[in-house]
Design a protein that fits this description.
The chain is α/β, with parallel strands linked by helices and 827 residues long. Among the domains are: 209 residues, no CATH class; 262 residues, no CATH class. The protein has 32 helices and 20 strands. It has a seven-stranded mixed beta sheet. α13 packs across α16, α19 crosses α26 and α23 packs across α25. The chain is globular, with a radius of gyration of 28 Å.
């Protein structure tokens, strides 16, 4: 029996009971990273589901199954080599890591005598069948049909004439749509396919089993084929995976992604049923190749260039860090007891503001900590609105913040008013989309928007006094379920947790400022992507206010003292929010501050203003705003918050490249260029490694998600990038965006968020993780967490540690010493 015939024959060892083939489909779904709704944007590592494979192996797999590479075009590395961005020493270090004995000069020749060839994925039967005479290839038509079906199924806000029945699943909805699509035969070029769908079992599991039997595929091929088919429609695959992920966080079960796989497999079955014997054998042979992909598919040499590019940045980082602590006095070091302690989110944009604040206020100590301040909350606004999560997507909320005006009566009255307003708006919406009033009502009410359209077009809309749109309504912190106020023991646990997490357990300043960050832009579906990633794509002012309130609670302080954290009586906290578009910092709840602290607070506000001026000047070049004085520059960036034509209000976290876990004294006075996440960590306060374990399993993974989202949005722009902002249309209210007349969701970042029209504003480098801790502690923590170990060992992050002599780099299971960015050598 020849190889082709074997491929088309079911594997007798493959048990086709539901549980066995479902396991293969589940594994394929787990290879897809989830995405979140636009209004709850969370940066996601698009390769997260493949973290247990080495990065070059994943590159090979994606080339085979999608025809796309994780790496940049050859021209990118040629330019970096010719321009000195990759030095000879960088390439030499990369060659040594890879175990290649070529000289840099000899290896460099390959960049000029090799042309990059991309794979064309053609393992689907739909790839083999001819298309309609005047239509698209069958594969494109099927992706379009599934995309439109998903758009209609998941729409909860925009569509007014929904055909979806209550309780109907995605597979059921799709099958009914396919049976009703009278143009399906013509568009696909598959004669009789619509009628054929009438014979498909209505029960999803039965239909899937019959499809697998008809295709004759074993467990390994089923997993590979299912993943490859999901990669044909990566946006909706990621959305379905996100629905399942969020259900799991809430303790519910969901299998929407598996339903999508069933749809794709039934389409394969449909194409297979209409294929000739030769076409069936050809498809079977190509499917077999899906599980025979080599470790690098001949592209290992290009990974050497990419690694050299990354080493170039890491060398410059270590040169900036310079000598270790103790070798010289830290620039602008704060006094023994700081006048002010300002806690900022670890976000790379905070690095610039912190550095300039320290320059203008030598008495301040800045501290880096995750922007949700260790408070896993959802925020319930007044009115008929769903709660908004304000915590990282990896975590489940435990508490709820309920807006209050101070009394139950006032809250009830406001809720009734807002409910009535929403009912009125909904009535107008229904009338606007009604069959009899569509044109007359729209034309009449449209006139009411004329002046607003003019003002918005001329950028005349004035922003009102809130910082970055932050709502200053008071909130009541309660348990997520039941709504009871927090017990004192819970409050103490929360405060002790975030103080220990930021290595702040003594030497408290008289004034402590918890500084969240946020953003405000107009006409920008990806607005939440510029807000705090640690706050679920929301502004961080709410979390900062709660942290300050808990810190100031007298009963909490008494209990903290019993745990060894003694807060002086003269230490008080306030909250603030840093608007990353304008670099303005607004303080909240200052009325509760004692009169004795008012002068220090007023002085801090002046220092924040000057630090904002310096930060804006540093950012001006990237925003193409050079040449303005401070006042004019301030006005220019302010105008970007309300300009509905602005496609680049700020650069977000573009060019992020490293995260450092160390005391601020290690980095104070160092210009890290807004490329580094900074999280305070004191190894002397963490002998058992518990704090480090928490940092690597949460902030480091969040930073990895951010880093790899930017990476994928640049290197795999057509798969993991959101395309051109100017062509975006929002789907389903907040589900996502499509580009132009496309039907698949565009996930990741828009082109305008990573490219300025001439140059890339984000360098695609994997995250450098720098830790001030003994090697044994780092390795022990790494082994405790499989996800952390996978990221390190499979080269999704690059692990480093600070030493008294300089630093060490973790390479291929060993620590290699280097000094100030020099080439590493075995320890």
């Amino acid at each position: 029996m020849n190889g082709i015939a074997q491929c088309s024959t079911p594997d007798a060892s493959f048990d086709r009971s539901t549980g066995h083939w479902q396991a293969s489909i589940s594994r394929a779904c787990e290879m897809v990273a989830p995405v979140w709704p636009l209004d709850q944007w969370i940066a996601v590592n698009p390769f997260w589901g493949l973290r247990n494979l080495k990065a070059p192996r994943v590159d090979s797999l994606l080339r085979q199954r999608r025809g796309e590479s994780m790496l940049m075009p050859l021209a990118f590395y040629r330019e970096a080599w010719e321009g000195g961005r990759i030095s000879r020493d960088d390439l030499l270090a990369s060659l040594k890591e890879a175990g290649i004995n070529d000289t840099p000069e000899l290896f460099g020749e390959r960049l000029y005598r090799t042309e990059r060839v991309e794979n064309r994925p053609d393992y689907s039967v739909l790839d083999i069948l001819p298309g309609a005479v005047e239509g698209e290839p069958p594969t494109a038509v099927v992706v379009d049909q599934i995309g439109r079906t998903c758009g209609a199924f998941f729409d909860r806000r925009q569509s007014r004439w929904s055909t979806r029945s209550d309780g109907e699943g995605l597979f059921d909805f799709w099958l009914e749509s396919a049976r009703a699509d009278v143009s399906l035969d013509y568009r696909t070029g598959i004669r009789g396919v619509r009628r054929w769908f009438g014979t498909v079992p209505a029960y999803r599991l039965e239909a899937t089993r019959e499809a697998i039997d008809a295709l004759g595929i074993d467990a390994d091929i089923l997993e590979a084929l299912a993943h490859g088919l999901l990669m044909r429609i990566p946006g909706w695959a990621a959305w379905c995976r996100g629905v399942d992920w969020r259900a799991g966080l809430q303790g519910d079960s969901s299998s929407v992604c598996e339903e999508l796989v069933s749809i794709l497999l039934v389409w394969e079955w449909a194409a297979f049923a209409h294929a000739s014997p030769e076409q069936k054998n050809m498809a079977a042979n190509r499917r077999h190749a899906l599980v025979e992909t080599g470790s690098g598919a001949g592209t290992e040499w290009l990974w050497v260039w990419h690694r050299a590019f990354e080493i170039g940045y890491q060398r410059s980082l270590w040169c900036t860090l310079g000598n270790p602590e103790g070798a010289q006095e830290r620039k602008n070091a704060p006094p023994e007891r700081p006048e002010v302690q300002a806690v900022f989110c670890i976000d790379v944009r905070s690095e610039i503001m912190r550095r300039h604040l320290e320059e203008v206020h030598p008495g301040v100590q800045t501290i880096g900590f995750a922007g949700f301040f260790g408070l896993p909350i959802v925020h319930q606004n007044h009115g008929p609105y769903r709660p908004m999560a304000k915590l990282p997507g990896l975590l489940a909320p435990a508490y709820r913040v309920v807006d209050t005006q101070g009394s139950n009566e006032s809250d009830a009255a406001l809720n009734r008013a807002l409910d009535q307003r929403e009912m009125t708006r909904e009535s107008v919406r229904k009338a606007k989309y009604g069959s009899l009033s569509t044109f007359t009502l729209v034309e009449t009410t449209g006139l009411a928007w004329a002046w607003k359209l003019v003002k918005d077009s001329l950028n005349l809309t004035a922003r009102k006094g809130k910082a970055a749109g932050q709502d200053t309504v008071a909130g009541r912190l309660v348990y997520l379920h039941g709504g009871d106020p927090l017990f004192e023991t819970t409050k103490v646990e929360l405060v002790a947790g975030f103080l220990r997490g930021m290595a702040l357990t003594d030497n408290f300043a008289p004034l402590l400022v918890f500084t969240g960050h946020g953003t405000h832009t107009e006409n920008n579906p990806h607005n939440a992507g510029l807000a705090c990633g640690a706050c679920g794509g929301q502004n961080g002012g709410m979390n900062a206010r709660l942290a300050a309130q808990l810190f100031n609670d007298p009963q909490v302080r008494v209990a903290l003292a019993e745990e060894g954290i003694s807060i002086p009586l003269d230490s008080w906290a306030v909250a603030a929010e840093h608007c990353t578009v304008t670099d303005e910092v607004t303080l909240f709840d200052c009325d509760s501050l004692p009169a004795s602290h008012r002068p220090a607070l007023a002085d801090l506000e002046r220092r924040f203003a000057e630090a904002g001026n310096r930060t804006r000047r540093e950012r001006a070049t990237a925003l193409k705003l050079n040449g303005y004085d401070d006042s004019a520059l301030h006005q220019k960036v302010r105008s970007r918050t309300s300009d509905w034509t602005e496609v680049r209000p700020e650069w977000g976290l573009a060019n992020n490249a490293a995260i450092i876990f160390a005391k601020r004294s290690r980095t104070r006075g160092k210009n890290l260029g807004g490329r580094v996440f900074l999280h305070d960590y004191d190894p002397d306060q963490d002998s058992n490694g518990e704090v480090l374990a928490a940092l690597l399993s949460a902030p480091m993974i969040v930073a990895n998600w951010i880093n790899m989202q930017y990476f994928g949005s640049v290197t795999m722009l057509d798969v993991y990038g959101a395309g051109n902002k100017l062509l975006h249309s929002v789907v389903g209210g907040n589900v996502g965006v499509i580009e132009g007349n496309g039907t698949d969701l565009r996930i990741g970042l828009p082109l305008q968020s990573v490219h300025d029209g001439t140059y890339w504003r984000h360098e695609p480098v994997r995250l450098a993780v720098v830790i001030d801790a003994p090697a044994e502690r780092i390795e022990a923590v790494m082994r405790q967490n499989p996800d952390v170990e996978a990221l390190v060992e499979n080269q999704w992050v690059w692990l480093h540690r600070l030493t008294d002599e300089g630093g060490e780099r973790y390479v291929n299971g060993t620590w290699q010493a280097f000094r100030n960015g020099s080439a590493p050598s075995p320890r």
